[in-house]
């Protein structure tokens, strides 16, 4: 496992004009030393962290020695969203979570990269919330990312997403068992009726006659409750609704005209969270003004979580981007 490192950021001004005197930014890096190879930034999703590869890596099927994002050829960096609790220090949790936006997190990540001497990225990739932050990073510096790869996300939060964030926030602030109960609701957004029906087929667990789908949901609630902090969940959930909050269609089109990035949109055909029609619309808008934009679609019954399940399809989609660059290095 790569060690967790820390960058101290001082006097950071948020979008709402509040100034944070100190923000600790924790990160891990994998593969080649910084400054010796192309840099791939991996942004984690709502309950994720910087452990993207290795034995417990949540994207180890994509990242590692000999993998499609090959740590023998790339420097892979993953920041922890400040306040996600992965450093284990309760003093670093963020209680005033509504102060922060995804644009703030994107600016924090750029400051972290610059403190490491990194001005340009070969790629920034992330799923869900991590992909939303990738969009925000591109909006801030449209000339400094070679490959933008947002997966199971979009450049803006929709009304549907904002509505579900509100429901999650109400559960988190009013339930007697907040993380557990919020997770039960969230899992139904991350999966699909077809996925659950095929997995459980109305079967029950003996002897208590509990339906297997109920046991599965309760298990996920307990699992997250035991490893995640309430303040962290409130912050990450809130950040989802702020994706693209500072942008509008006109500014998005202007970004498309200005950016030099190759933009690879990766949607999931059954995604209930960031719907496929929104991704297709984004592609249609961008291709009017930007030459190097590509649309990819994962076929899956599993919904939003397919970006954490359908590794074979993701590997196939990403090979052309990363293996071509690796061949140039060789």
Automatic annotation (TrEMBL):
What biological process terms from GO does the record include? homoserine metabolic process; methionine biosynthetic process
**UniProt GO MF annotations:** homoserine O-acetyltransferase activity; hydrolase activity
Family matches, as InterPro entries: AB_hydrolase_1 (IPR000073), AB_hydrolase_fold (IPR029058), HAT_MetX-like (IPR008220)
Question: AB hydrolase-1 domain: which residues?
Answer: 38-158
Has UniProt tagged this entry with the keyword Acetylation? Answer: no
- Where do the catalytic residues lie? 128 (nucleophile), 271, 304
- Name the domain of life this protein comes from: Bacteria
Q: Name one Pfam family in it.
A: Abhydrolase_1
Q: Give the UniProt keywords, A-Z.
A: Hydrolase, Transferase
Which residue stretches, if any, does this entry annotate as coiled coil? none
* Membrane-spanning intervals of the chain: none
Q: Does the keyword Transferase apply?
A: yes
Task: Cite the PANTHER family for this sequence.
Answer: HOMOSERINE O-ACETYLTRANSFERASE (PTHR32268:SF11)
What is the name of this protein?
A: Alpha/beta fold hydrolase
